[in-house]
Write a structure and sequence with these properties.
Elements lengths: L2 E12 L3 E12 L3 E5 L6 H8 L7 E6 L2 E2 L5 H8 L2 E5 L10 H6 L8 H5 L5 H13 L15 H13 L5 E5 L7 H18 L2 E5 L3 H7 L2 E6 L2 E6 L6 H8 L17
Parallel strand pairs: 3-8, 3-9, 6-7, 7-8
Antiparallel strand pairs: 1-2, 1-4, 4-5, 9-10
Helix pairs in contact: 6-7
Bound molecules: adenosine-5'-triphosphate (ATP).
The site of adenosine-5'-triphosphate (ATP) has 11 residues, from β2 and α1.
Amino acid sequence: MTALLELKEVSKQFGKDTKALSDISFTIEKGEFVSIIGPSGAGKSTLLRCINRMVEPTGGDIIFDGISVPGLGKKALMKTRTQIGMIFQHYNLVNRLTAIENTLHGRLGSKSVLAGMLGLYSEEEKQQAVKLLDTLGLKEQMYKRSDRLSGGQKQRVGIARALIQNPKMLLCDEPIASLDPNSSKVIMKHLRTISTELGITVLVNLHQVETALKYSDRIIGVNSGKIVYDGPPAGMSSEEIANIYGAEAKDLSITLGGGHAG
Ligand SMILES: Nc1ncnc2c1ncn2[C@@H]1O[C@H](COP(=O)(O)OP(=O)(O)OP(=O)(O)O)[C@@H](O)[C@H]1O
């Protein structure tokens, strides 16, 4: 396997007093499915957002596909971002647009501003959008306005929008935090398939420990901006989970076991 992403002593300071990340280092291989878990405020979201510089890191280096991300100028950063799809807790869809229009928005980063404004998409792009939505089980919803979709359907449009970029990696920031258990399962299964069958690296922030253990190849546990666990889910003991969650651990009732679902 080859490393797709490497973080070297990445740190993030907000203002004077908040050190959100301290010397975060890890390497992720192509096609790996990695979950970042940890208590509220641990720095999970900041960590994910530093990778594509939605949040600017204040120290360290991030190498994505051989390119150092912190040093990139605006244009080069936009180009690199087309390789990194992002999925959000609140979907970030344009409500008045249809599922297929929102999906096609994923192509905007690769177009001129004018072509984007005029909504000029090639036949090939439209076909790809149709195919992606079909694969994600949204054939019937393709021409529905996004505000008429359920949360789970909206998130699947979010996934289609990310995939139409033809990314090498997906960053998923709490993708199931607003969903019911059934829709969450559907989303996690799609993400797992994307990693296994398309070879796309998936890095996901999760609040749900059991879900992380079930679907991931690897868990990165974060507490107070530092990595406190990095390894396979199967190797995790309840002490390690307690170590990651600190004071929150007593509120977690989980079944250990590991091994991911297909
Ligand atoms: N824009 C910001 N300005 C100042 N402080 C921030 C900002 N964003 C995050 N922080 C702080 O950085 C720390 C890490 O926050 P972050 O949102 O990354 O944690 P998290 O693990 O994702 O939390 P949660 O699980 O609750 O979403 C927290 O102390 C938070 O208050």
